[in-house]
Design goal:
The protein is α+β, with helices and mostly antiparallel strands. It contains 4 helices and 7 strands.
Length: 168
């Protein structure tokens, strides 16, 4: 049985990092140097700080994750600093569990957190070459709102955002 919940102290940061590595391997194989392709557990932990990390667990095994962060004061992505905009990062579903609705469940949980916290939009970014992800986000109501070139990345990212309306 799958359970969606906040990351707990007892959850393994190493296990979460390895989940990220598995989920981002396809993107790495495309030549996209996403941070999560090979980040160290310390980087995983640092990227969680300041946000809310939700996970999907199957028993004791983590099979999905997302971090939703309040509006940034400063960020390389200008859109993430707009008033009322929360941002989602470090979004991953274990390849063995992809296609089962876990990603949708995680995005819905992030959207619910953002809406309950008073945000009016949830924004996310991904490499423009990751068309499978862009198409997924668009199917789920996200729209293209900008671009960002993250320092050290070999790709440009599309920024997508979804309004958090009463019936969303």
């Amino acid at each position: 049985m799958l359970e969606i919940r906040k990351l707990q102290e007892s959850d393994s940061i190493l296990g979460l990092t390895l989940l990220l590595h598995r989920a981002y391997a396809r993107l790495g194989a495309m030549g996209l140097n996403y941070t999560a392709v090979d980040q160290a557990p310390e980087v995983t932990e640092k990227r969680i700080r300041g946000g809310n990390c939700f996970v999907v667990a199957s028993g004791s095994k983590l099979v999905g994750t997302i971090v939703v962060h309040p509006t940034y004061v400063e960020n390389a992505c200008e859109y993430f600093t707009r008033s009322g905009v929360a941002a989602a990062h470090q979004f991953a579903v274990d390849p063995e569990h992809q296609g089962a609705g876990i990603g949708r469940m995680l995005l819905q949980r992030a959207e619910r957190w953002a809406k309950e916290a008073g945000f009016v939009e949830l924004a996310i970014d991904t490499a423009e070459q990751a068309t499978h992800l862009v198409e997924l986000y668009e199917r789920l109501g996200y729209r293209h709102v900008g671009w960002v070139q993250w320092p050290g990345k070999v790709y440009r990212s599309m920024v997508l955002s979804k309004p958090l309306v009463a019936n969303a």
